[in-house]
Amino acid sequence: MRNEFIGELLDSRLVSKMNTCSAHSLNGDFDKEEKIKSLTKIQYNVTQKGADEPPFHNEYWDNYEEGIYVDIVSGEPLFSSKDKYDAHTGWPSFTKPLISNNVVFKSYGLFTAITGMEVRSRNANSFLGHVFNDGPQPTGQRYCMNSASMAFIPKADLVRRGYGAYAAQFSDD
């Protein structure tokens, strides 16, 4: 059974599909040090030092354009505007990640109930924000993110910027 699964996993069509759907999440070939040098002071403090930007004074808290949000350092796809909602906190909030494997969590033990779990990007280890269990259904989660840790890719630019695999979710019905 295990060998069959591994055989299927290595099937070139499956691997090709995985690479197409999440090329940025699987692709670790970015120069982290060089990218970090290009960050603004607030982007650096948030992604590298774990700071939070001020509420209501950040780029995406009230952005409702269709598109995806990616890690500012690695380009990993993180969140979709389809899952964004107004939590009235002053930070962009989402019900779930676009690709769950692109985010990792860090617990603070007893303080987790108060501060939420820390959320970081997988490849760049950028601090993104926190996740709380007070969000809307169906997930019940609120991913409260820092705008400074993300770049927004509008729907119209997804293909041009290399994120074409995510364009279908914004099809005009």
TrEMBL record:
Q: Which Gene3D superfamilies does the UniProt entry name for this protein?
A: Peptide methionine sulfoxide reductase
MsrB domain residues:
32-155
Q: Which domain of life is it from?
A: Bacteria
Any GO molecular function: peptide-methionine (R)-S-oxide reductase activity
This enzyme catalyses:
L-methionyl-[protein] + [thioredoxin]-disulfide + H2O = L-methionyl-(R)-S-oxide-[protein] + [thioredoxin]-dithiol
Kindly give the PROSITE patterns that the UniProt entry links to this protein. Answer: MSRB (PS51790)
Q: Name one GO cellular component term.
A: cytoplasm
Q: What is its EC number?
A: 1.8.4.12
**What UniProt keywords apply to this chain's record, in alphabetical order?**
Oxidoreductase
Q: Which GO terms describe its biological process?
A: protein repair; response to oxidative stress
Q: What class of enzyme is it?
A: oxidoreductase
Q: What is this protein's name? A: peptide-methionine (R)-S-oxide reductase
